[in-house]
Amino acid sequence: MTGQTFIFATRLASNSPDAPGGGSQSDVVLETKPKTKRPPLYKVMLLNDDYTPMEFVVHVLERFFGMTHAQAFEIMLTVHKKGLAVVGVFTHEIAETKVAQVMDFARRHQHPLQCTMEKE
Ligand code: TYC
């Protein structure tokens, strides 16, 4: 498990050995280490089906996932051959938005294209 906050003690300069108490005292300072935590990530996947046109899937990948035509064509073919492919990895809110955008766009064009998300 990563991303914990640590509290650690730092010993500062010892007192003089001639000081009362035999010089065994030292100052202890508590410091909190600032720690940024990475958010959980989610894979967004496109699923194959027998009806959505290939050009439509390519368009979806260009429009919602910022791919070039060549990248989009390659990923579309991977989905077509393997059944699914990860098309991007995002934080929860962005992944949810991508899935909703793709599902809504497919529905409006009356294609059965399915887009899902899964924790990485
Ligand atoms: N299998 C579809 C066809 O042959 C193309 C397709 C590719 C559909 C990827 C969905 O996510 C998909 N027309």
TrEMBL record:
The gene is clpS. NCBIfam families: PRK00033.1-2, PRK00033.1-5. Involved in the modulation of the specificity of the ClpAP-mediated ATP-dependent protein degradation. The keyword Hydrolase applies. The lineage of its organism: Bacteria, Pseudomonadati, Pseudomonadota, Alphaproteobacteria, Rhodobacterales. It holds the Pfam family ClpS. HAMAP family: ClpS. Binds to the N-terminal domain of the chaperone ClpA. This is ATP-dependent Clp protease adapter protein ClpS. GO terms for molecular function: peptidase activity. Residues 13-32 are annotated as: Disordered. Belongs to the ClpS family. GO terms for biological process: protein catabolic process; proteolysis. Keywords: Hydrolase, Protease. SUPFAM superfamilies: ClpS-like. The keyword Protease applies. Residues 37-116 form the Adaptor protein ClpS core domain.
